[in-house]
From TrEMBL:
Keywords carried by this UniProt record: Cell membrane, Membrane, Transmembrane, Transmembrane helix, Transport
Pfam families assigned to the protein according to its UniProt record, in alphabetical order: BPD_transp_1, BPD_transp_1_N
Transmembrane domains' residue ranges: 6-27, 101-122, 134-157, 177-197, 235-261, 281-307
GO CC entries: plasma membrane
Alphabetical list of InterPro entries matching this protein: BPD_transp_1_N (IPR045621), MetI-like (IPR000515), MetI-like_sf (IPR035906)
Organism listed in the record: Bosea thiooxidans
Domain ABC transmembrane type-1: 95-304
Family in the record: Belongs to the binding-protein-dependent transport system permease family.
Membrane topology: Multi-pass membrane protein
Protein name (database record): Peptide ABC transporter
Domain of life, source organism: Bacteria
Keyword Iron set for record: no
Length: 313
């Protein structure tokens, strides 16, 4: 187990190193002078020179990377060009809405999707199976912004059951916090539900055809015990894999969802930074999102060995 953990940690460090190199080069991959790109089309030569000196762009590329990497290791993600505020402080200010949306979406999606997938596999070929899988295809096919605006029109404008946009902090009460996140959570979670449900159905259907499941049925084992205790555990590795892969879908969807519902989270921060060409913010957010994705995939890999001990070898 320790050797398996060591291998995964080494690979994680290598991946994050490559991500760090890419994030650093993001500023230099653009055609032309990075300082002129940041300054904009109407900047004066003096403003461009000031930006170049502030970012240290006159130094050799290797020196710039070493200086940047050292700051990142120490937790310093740089300073916003336009607000002169540390990037880490800006991200922390926007972290609660994004974290709330992401955690609620994962809880909603995994709970609904696994339930749908198990039920569809158990009733394979029957109308309920076709209905659930048809819903999954529809949820995965519709763009996030279309789903978001559709839900806003129905539940916020026509029925007036839920707020149209915005976010209420958890400190304002669980009720307002939850009500403002219902529509964004459903919007972001639909594609995630579809992905996990289809994989759950496929994995469960394969396990349900095994001999030991037939034996359990012949012995009169209750369906709930057979499905949840025996079949689902043995079908768990592919399901956990697709949950980990879906985190990338979740991270990308957060940006769109926060824009549609006017949520002041990290996704909105990225959109504003891109429009202003504030590269330190863009680099910092990409680095953090990448780190979260890599760590979740590390946790998924480690969970394999708990579900199936043969993977350790």
């Amino acid at each position: 187990m320790l050797s398996y953990l060591a291998q995964r940690l080494v690979s994680t460090i290598l991946v994050m190193t490559l991500v760090g190199i890419f994030v650093f080069l993001l500023l230099h991959l653009s055609a032309g002078d990075p300082a002129a790109i940041i300054a904009g089309d109407y900047a004066t030569p003096q403003q461009i020179v000031a930006i170049r000196q502030r970012l240290g762009l006159d130094d050799p590329l290797l020196v710039q990377f070493g200086r940047w990497a050292l700051r990142v290791i120490q937790g310093d993600l740089g300073v916003s060009i336009f607000s002169s505020t540390p990037v880490s402080a800006l991200i922390l200010q926007r972290l609660e809405p994004t974290l709330s949306l992401a955690l609620l979406t994962m809880l909603f999606a995994v709970t609904i999707a696994v339930t749908f997938g198990v039920l569809a596999a158990w009733k394979a070929g029957r109308p309920i199976d076709r209905l659930l899988m048809g819903f999954s295809v529809l949820g995965f096919s519709m763009p996030t912004f279309v789903v978001g605006y559709g839900l806003i029109y129905i539940f916020a404008i026509e029925l007036r059951w839920l707020p149209v946009q915005g976010y209420r902090a958890l400190a304002d009460g669980i009720g307002p916090w939850f009500l403002h996140l219902v529509l964004p959570t459903v919007t972001l979670g639909l594609a995630y539900v579809a992905l996990i449900a289809r994989m759950t159905r496929a994995s469960m259907q394969e396990v349900l055809e095994e001999d030991y499941i037939r034996t359990a049925n012949a012995k009169g084992v209750p369906a709930r015990t057979m499905l949840m205790k025996h079949a689902l555990k043995n079908a768990g590795v592919p399901i956990i894999t697709v949950i980990g892969i879906g985190v990338a879908l979740l991270i990308g969807g957060v940006v769109i969802t926060e824009t549609v519902f006017n949520i002041p989270g990290v996704g909105r921060l990225v959109v504003d930074a891109i429009s202003k060409r504030d590269y330190p913010i863009i680099q910092g957010v990409i680095l953090i999102f990448s780190g979260v994705y890599v760590l979740i995939n590390l946790a998924v890999d480690l969970s394999y060995s708990l579900i199936d001990p043969r993977i350790r070898h």
